[in-house]
Amino acid sequence: MAQGLDTEVQFLKGVGPRFAPGLAKLGLQTVQDVLWAIPRRYEDRRNIPPIAFARPGDWVTIIGTVSHMESRPLRGGMLLLKAYVRDSSGMIALTWFNQPWIQRTLEKYEGQVVAYGQVKDGNRYPEMASPEWETLGEGDDPEDFAKIVPVYPLKEGVTQKTMRKAARSAVRDFIDFVEDPLPQSLREREKIRGLRWCLKQIHEPDTEVDRLEARRRLVFEEFFYLQVGLAMRRAEVMESLGIAFPVDDLLAGRTIFDALPAVPTPPELGTKKRRASVVKPDLAPTHLFEEGERSRRDGEPLLAQVERMLPFTLTGAQQRVVHEIWDDMKAPHPMNRLLQGDVGSGKTAVAACAMLAAVRSGYQAALMAPTEILAEQHAVNLRQLFSKLDIEVELMVGKLTMVQKRRALERVRLGQAWIAVGTHALIQEGVEFRRLGLAVIDEQHRFGVLQRAALREKGMGQPDVLVMTATPIPRTLTMTVYGDLSSSIIDELPPGRKPIKTHWKSAAERKPVYASVRKLVEEGRQAYFVCPMVSESEKMLAQAAEDLYQHLSEEAFSGIPVGLLHGQMKSAEKELVMNQFRTGDLRILVATTVIEVGVDVPNASVMVIEDANRFGLAQLHQLRGRVGRGDQQSFCILIADVKSDEARTRMEVMVRTTDGFEISEEDLKLRGPGMITGTQQSGAADFRIADLLQDSRLLEVARQAAIRLIADDPSLSQPEHQGILEKVGEKRGQMAMVSIS
Ligand code: ADP
Ligand code: MG
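# adenosine-5'-diphosphate complex -> structure
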């Protein structure tokens, strides 16, 4: 039989074989499980007024004797039972539905009962509906009932009573088996109590203050192991060997590669005859240098190249961030960096600077986007930039023909294309790079724990990795989901941007909204209409867009050229429509959320979002980011009839601010971390006890403590850190599983 904390729950007093199956349903097999089953909330039953002083609305405990009972059938076959309980001050009626056994118990009973519940008005006496209650036998202490009582999360077939009994016996008989993984020194420094005391207080708090102190420790601990795991991962990366890009040489104009070296032309591809042997071994490239054979020669300094590449000057924030990235690329360990910036803050230009440094060091760079549309958009943008420096950009997406795809693969494999742009398929389908030095991951809303792991495991060596997010992420999530990355933040928009004016209108105001949009369009502006998010299905969305298109082009905006864009259209059609909108031939574009990312038409300065209440905050912010890119005042109109407080808050936040950092924090408050990260991928943001919103300060504390610990004992080899090492191992095991699933 298992000993100590591994003892099966059936051996707990008050549980036994009878109740053990119920606890098993809750996932509680052992005493250890029970001790770590954290109450959902607590009832404070310590208020025991004389019955006459129990006021309607109050939650109170009353003690008295049963004076008499009434039971009567109600319509619908329900049975109503009232037990009148009195003390020396007054009388109250306890009421229950369909619980005849209570009557049978109380009928023969003459002693005291104790009951807890909310008082409400009754006919002659106040009432308490469906209270929790117990009989007080000889030797029973009412304080066992009238205390702070835990309320556990339950499933059908398990009662609070069973769960409380299990927890109480676990604490009473097994708490001494609990070992504290946190050493005394750490507990003293962080001012946290021992684990035994805390677990006892979690299940049986003496006071609210004690309970909070106990909770504080458990939350700290939960954050702490994660943060120690992340700090260890960071330390491992720092120790492992990556590429030390010679950025200083590049900056000084001691360019290593200022152009593509001559490359033997591969055999003409695409003819049926040759397809079988794409590259003959004797044509294998030898032009890319190996370590030690760099040909140093003077060339154009890196910043001059940047200036030639970009059609604008970098903002101060962009410059700072570019240098943070370059410094990191320079270091001998692999870069693992998160780049955050608001919509339109110019992350692409920053990524281009990073890629340029890689290319000029003789390495290839890859840019991965979450969708094909976005990959294409990036390819178009980057080609424009890099063509000025004669650097070739290859687009690799699924819609390529076999021949095109093969050619692209070869060019990347041979190192003829310095930059490859594609979807995540770039890393997942075993694309071979000649010499990949930098991978940029444009994540948009996705959280790429998975992709980042895949990238390293695909045998691509240790390229530097830069992860870009579409919109800012709440700080707490950055510290957890992205906690192993260093972070760069672009906190400034390019000059001349006018804050977008946002208005929220009801559906009933559509007509005047359309009229004013018409006026703006007639003055020469262009407008987007985003169709309602009717469903997740692309097909139904396309239908909704078509309906809106019909309506707008034939009625509200007849005589004005209106275009339609949705995900079900062929690529060529999409391109045609986008081009017509870009050139101004189309004045209005009706679209699904396909325009959410990447679309950049500066003359479009009006955005109307239909049924805006159906979109999440991050999405609304991203959509709104399509306007405000030119020099005129832009407008965003949210058409929404709200049915919930949450939707109302979302609209109000959008009207109040255009600051993506603020919006992301509001989003976290409204939706919680699980929804934002998509629980199936987050893992790291799933906490049992901690609440990222409520406990954000403690997260910071735990992070600092973790950093200090790893600085002091990087591999946790000191004996007093063994407990922590074990816990961190469990947590990292979970994290690894998350990225495989
Ligand atoms: P995001 O950060 O949302 O990806 P983009 O990289 O698409 O933003 O940039 C948004 C727009 O701002 C683009 O049209 C880009 O050309 C422009 N832009 C970026 N940086 C600057 C700058 N420093 N000065 C002027 N325009 C800029
Ligand atoms: Mg972008």
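# post-check
The chain has 27 helices and 21 strands.
Residues 612 and 620 are 8 Å apart (CA to CA).
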